[in-house]
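Following up on my earlier message about NAP. Here are the inputs again, as you asked, copied directly from the submission form:
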Amino acid sequence: MTFLYKADPQRGERWAELFAEKAPDIDFHIWPGKADPDKVRYLGVWEPPDRIAERFPNLEVLFSVAAGVDKIDFSALPAGLPVVRMIEPGIVAGMVEYVLWAVLGLHRDMPTYRRFQEERLWKPLPLSPAGGRRVGVLGLGELGRAVLRQLRTLGFQTFGWSRAPHVIEGTMCFGGRDHLPDFLAHCDILVCLLPLTTETTGLLDKNMLACLPRGAALVQVGRGPHLVAEDLLSALDSGQIRDAILDVTEPEPLLPSDPLWVHPRVTLTPHIASMTQPDSAVDVVLENIRRFHAGEPMIGLVDKAKGY
Ligand code: NAP
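Thanks, got it. Here's what our run produced:
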């Protein structure tokens, strides 16, 4: 019985140690490795290999080592093959840290003070309390809900948008595309934590950015193709958007010629908002393998029809 791991090989070394310690009956290999393809029952991927069904005829579960599954082409998989995304405490903690850093920085005008510093300008701006700032999160999944919980603790007014309506105490929630403009009108700071699907690709475009209050700020931690970058650049230049913090871009890495690199109102990070932590991730994967064999629902089972 083999688990084949096809993701960051450095972190894979830690996965191998943890499997050896916690599940010695499972033969763990890092891609490409020397695993017998017929024995591969579990495959853990960031970017999956092609022809999965032909390569691994006895595959039982496809695990994404990331929270998103947008790199997996469901149409190329056997219909009955379960796909499980990564839900583990390390990813959640990393995302909460990043979004709090970004929201607090925008709330306290840090990008403006950075520009002032470059001009050697000593200029205090008015300080408004968190309770006067409205923060909206697109996507009320594992990550969006965890981020909102902490934003509420800090005293921000919070808003959320998802596909189906949600009820979250202390957060005003909006559901569905028809209610997106209403939601956006409430966001001084907008955080994108959506999965990438056909429905969400290009969602952050000029029409949507125009629905935000003038001078709103954007924190983009979903996936690069959610955002129409040229529409963001126009919105930044017109003052509709005051600042953008982008952790994800299209493509990744961003091309050297891309204007986002040098725009004074853009802060870029190289897709590091959150990372799967092997120590907690392996526990979840092993629990899912146990659940799979016990016929119990696995944590993070993907609904292929919805795409997330
Ligand atoms: P999740 O639990 O699957 O939640 C997804 C949320 O998005 C749900 O609330 C869902 O609505 C909503 N949604 C999906 N499609 C929608 C649509 N068409 N219209 C409105 N709402 C829609 O996902 P998660 O674990 O929170 O992760 C979210 C995303 O974060 C990942 O897919 C990935 O793109 C991104 N991420 C980024 C990083 C990074 O380092 N930058 C790291 C991890 C994850 P319902 O609740 O109604 O189903």
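One observation from looking it over: Residues 97 and 284 are 21 Å apart (CA to CA). Hope that helps, and feel free to reply on this thread.
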